[in-house]
Structures are given as C-alpha cells and as structure tokens.
Amino acid sequence: MKATTNAFPTTHLQALGGSGNQYGGPGTIYLEGSSGLGTLAIDNGNHNGAVAGLMEGQYQFDEIHLTGYGHLQVFGATSVLTLSNDTLTGDGTAWLIDEGVTIAPTDFTFGGAVLAVQGELSGPQAITTTGSGGLQLYASTPWHSGVYTFTTVTVGSGTTLGMIPFNNGDTNYADDYGVELRVQNLTVESDATISADGQGYASTMGPGAGIGAGFNQSGSGGGYGGRGGQSGNGYAGGPAYGDLYYPAQLGSGGGSANGYAGGAGGGAIRLIVSDTLSVSGTISANGGNGGAGPYWSYSGGGAGGSIWIDAGEIAGTGLARSLGGSAVGNGGSGAGGRIAIYAQTNVFSGTLQAQGGSGGYQAGGAGTVFIWDAQSTNGTLIVNNSGYSGPATVLPTSDYAFDRWLLSGYGKVQTDVTSTLTLTNQSVDGDGTGELVAYGVINAPADFAVVSYTLRVRGDLTGIQTLSVGESGAASGRVALYAGTPWHSDMYTFTSVTVESGGQLWLAPSISDNGIYTDDYGVELRVQNLTVEANATILADGLGYGSSAGPGAGAPGGGFGNAGGGGYGGRGGQGSGGMAGGLPYGDPYQPRLLGSGGSAADSIPGGAGGGAIHLIASTSLIVSGTISANGNIGSVG
C-alpha cells in the first residue's frame, strides 16, 4: 500500500496464516510513505506458526513491526538487512531471523522482537536490548564461527540473549562448541536472561546420554557434571564427563521412553569480560525436563550444560544456574552441569546453582561450581544438590587440593582410584548432608577433624595421627573406614581417635561375596587413646552379610511361611511354618566374624547381619556413647 498520507488503521490490514496441524506463516504488509523506505508489518493473530519470508536480496525499512507471533525470516546467506535503532518494533512475541548480513549502528539499541543472527551482525560495538524480545547468537553460521566481540552488551529487563551452540549431529562430540562472547563490560539487568536452556544434546545423545526405554519402561537421566538419575526399571543414569575447571561441553540428553523424547541437555555459555560483569538477572544453561509418554512410560531429564566466565570483576545479586531437567513417574532426572567463574575481584552476592533435577524415580546427581579470585590459591568447589539425594558427582581423574570444598544439600563427590586429595581442617565445610567419597589417596594433616560432612575412605588415608570425628553443636561429622580397598587392607593405626558428640565412625568390613566366608574380615582400629563421647557412635550396623547370606543364614520362606532369622552368637529365630533360624558359629573369646543375614521370603529380603569391630587401644578406651554392630530388621512383604 502506497500513500503520501495514510489514515487507514493498520489493524484493519490482515495477512494471517491459516489454521491446521501448524498455523501457516503470515503474509507481509508493506506500507510506503513519503520517505520511500516504508513500514513492513507482520502479524499472525497471536498464532505461533510458520514464518513470513523475504527472498534473498537487500532490504531497508523505516520500521519492521512484528506482532502476534508474526515471525519474519530473511532467506539467503547473501541477503543484506539494514537496521537502525528505531527500525525493529513489536510486542515481544515474534522473531526476526536473518540468514544473511544484518547491518546496524555502532551503538545499537532495539527491542520488541527477537533478532536471530543466523548470518553476521555487522557494525555494532555497543548493544542494548530493551523492553521485550532480545538477541539470538549462533556459534556457527555461514558467515561466523564461535566468537562474538563487542565493547559493551546490556541485556535489558524483560529481554533474553540466547546463545545457540554448534552441534553437527554426529557422535564425535569433541567437535561441538558453544558461543563465546568477548566484551569489555556486560550487564544483565534484573528480569533479563542470558540463556542456553535446552540447547545441548537431544534425547539419548551426548557423552552422558540417558538410556532409552521401550514399552512400559522409563528412560534414565542424562549426565554431565554428575551422573544422571536411574530409572525405575533399573537403567543407569548417564555418566559424568568434562572439565570442572574449564567447562565448555554441552549437557547430554535424557533417555527416551517408548518413543517419547527425553529432555535435551543444556548448552554452553562462554563469557570473557575484561572489565565488569554485572548480573542482576539470570545466566542459565538448564537441561530440559523429561515427561510422561504412552503406556506408563516416562522419559529422563536432560543434564545441565556449561557456564564458563572470565571477568575482571563480577558483581550483582542475580543467578547463574546449570540445572538438570526433572523427571516424573519412573523416569530418571538429569544431572547438574558445570559452572566455573574466574575473576580478579568477586563481589557477586547472588546464587550459583548446578543441582540435578528432582522428581521421577531418582534425582540427578549434582553438578560442579568452581570459583577462583585473586585471593584464592586453589579455588573453591561447591557441590549442592538442593536437598535431593542422587548419584555421586564423579570428578575427572586428577589430583585435587581446593582451598575450600562446600558440600551441602546431599551433594556427593566421588574421586577415582588414581586421584589424590589433599585436605586441611578448614578446607571442607557443609551442612552435614554432603559426602566426599575417595577411592584414591587422601593426604591430610597430622591433627585432622571431620565436621559437617561425611568422609568415606574407599582408598587410603595418609598423614593423620590424631583423628576427630564430629563436633558438639555443629552439623554431623562422619567417617567411614573400609577394611578392604585398592590401597588398604584391614588395619588402621592412629595415635588417638575421638568421636565427639553427634559424630559417627563407621567401620565397614571386606566381603568377597564368593560364598567362602573365611576370607571376609572387619576393620581393625589400633590407637593409643580412643574416646567415644556421649551421643557419639562407632558402628557397623547392618554391614555384615546380606539377606540369605553367611554361615548362619536362616532358612528361606515361601508361600505362607516366613523365613528364619540369621544366626551368629546364638541361633536365629524360627519363622512361621517351621522355617529354621540360622545356626550359631564363631569364637566367643575372639569374635572376628560377621553376622549372618536373615533369609528372604518370596523375594522379600531379610535383614543384613551386623559387621565386625576390632578395637585395640594401648592406653585408654573411654566410652560414654555407643559401640554398635547390630543386625538389621527384616522386611515385610
């Protein structure tokens, strides 16, 4: 429509797409005024469907007005679209997608629609998004790869800066990568977002992909910073992978279920800010949620992705998160992703989150958050699963000596047999729910205290002479010593051990599970002085032989008969229907054997027997608390 003076209401002009399985794309409405450039108006009546299109060419308008999900795509890599600060307007529901070159002013301010740069953005040094809509940057386009460089970027309130990674779709995941944004100053205002949510690997894809399931089964969660959650039919969650110091990989997808896709993983965000990064809004690389498929099948959640930040200064009260996607029913939730922040000055007082998804059969394992600033030597590692007990967060093979470990919200960290941990009395803190499980070597000071977390020594513990477990008035401290590990066998020797009020020292035996019970043994603890304070415990409860196992296992039950109890120091109790209890065995003078399990009845397991505790205190043993090796209670079918 061309007119020198146009008083006709533009709301009376329509070029809507038709309805169907997907709404058709709108048509174009061009209004030419006295300037000659005119207005291009696109509206689809609030129906989110296909796009309107401009064929390959060169375009410049006084105004591009996009409303009611009226998306516009400029086709062709050789197209050129010239924008000014006032060109793009709209209600925030529509996208302007440009496959060619978008030319804009040096200081470029826009809003009202999402500008998706699938080609090249030429000209801007300072970018500000305002009002609604935002900017979408792609790691790989026909014109561009990887890195975007500007002087300043301000993500205004109500807008989103989307960061879309490159993923070539094959199973060589090493050549996929996210967007890298290099700026002097980056501001994320309140109610603004930098997002790579759901932009990682699709369902059942990625190095930590969840396992897909068939009819009446459920998929497991995707892994990345931690292991994905297990599904209800026993499929293990996807494994952890990647670098906690320099996280750049994409999160893996959750397992599908009977053809219903699992959640996609989170993408990868890389920010290099030479001066100041101010975050009052959100930086997010979350995994997608699983869902309910047909015939009682539930798909797994996707794992969180990567956020890697280098900044001169980081400030603000906002949020950076890389959460695993949640599941429902018997699906497994996705693991948390990885966040690493390096800043010479860190005055950020907001929230950092990398927990696994909740819900479903099992929560995803927590991801990792690593923080370094100029006051650090080795930085801080945070593992927090927000109160959900999921799989452990397995650290890549390496030697670790963080300035501080923060383990809370049932965050569990596991290291492998070739890794070495160096700990100090001040280096590990938590709320009493976190665990550090070391299959390698732990180096610790001569006087060592474990407070507010659980330390499981599945490898070896070196350097300690005086061990203190727990602290009155603090969150619970626990230490588990294992009789047989790849690095250690049977005996632990200290000068003194004190289990303080609220503390627990677990002594776990070595059980070969070969049916030959003579080669199984408990922990032998040798000390000069051993103190168990009031409300403190040394225990091996339920750590003996499992259900129906051991020299004194009870007779199994079945039908309407109940199984017999396990025997050791005495005979186990008889079950109803004449099922005999297990026979006594062992040495009353030097009891070293493990207690036998009660037998199962109709596949309902019996209680495990108690373990074995051998304490040798050359000077004194003071017990005001409890030393316990009880058997467990049997189950009710």
Number of helices: 0
Distance between the termini: 79 Å
Quick one: overall form? elongated
What's the number of extended β-strand segments?
A: 46
Beta-strand content: 35-45%
Sheet with the most strands? 20 strands, mixed
Radius of gyration: 31 Å
What is the percent of helical residues? under 10%
User: What structural class do the secondary elements suggest?
Assistant: mainly beta
Q: What would your notes on this structure say?
A:
By secondary structure, the chain is mainly beta. It is 0% helix and 35% strand. The protein contains no helices and 46 strands. The strands form 6 sheets. It has a 20-stranded mixed sheet that branches. An 8-stranded parallel sheet has the order 27-30-33-36-39-42-44-46, with no helix packed on it. Strands 35, 38, 40, 41, 43 and 45 form a 6-stranded parallel sheet that branches. The radius of gyration is 31 Å and the shape is elongated.
How would you summarize the topology of this molecule?
Elements: E1 29-31, E2 39-43, E3 52-54, E4 58-60, E5 63-67, E6 72-74, E7 80-82, E8 88-90, E9 95-98, E10 101-103, E11 107-117, E12 120-122, E13 126-138, E14 147-149, E15 152-155, E16 160-164, E17 179-188, E18 193-195, E19 268-279, E20 282-284, E21 306-316, E22 319-321, E23 338-348, E24 351-353, E25 368-373, E26 380-384, E27 393-394, E28 399-400, E29 404-408, E30 412-415, E31 420-422, E32 428-430, E33 435-438, E34 441-443, E35 447-450, E36 454-457, E37 460-462, E38 466-469, E39 478-482, E40 491-493, E41 496-499, E42 504-508, E43 523-532, E44 537-539, E45 613-623, E46 626-628
Parallel strand pairs: 2-5, 3-6, 4-7, 5-8, 6-9, 7-10, 9-11, 10-12, 11-13, 13-15, 13-16, 14-17, 15-17, 16-18, 17-19, 18-20, 19-21, 20-22, 21-23, 22-24, 23-25, 26-29, 27-30, 28-31, 29-32, 30-33, 31-34, 33-36, 34-37, 35-38, 36-39, 38-41, 39-42, 40-43, 41-43, 42-44, 43-45, 44-46
Antiparallel strand pairs: 1-2, 25-26
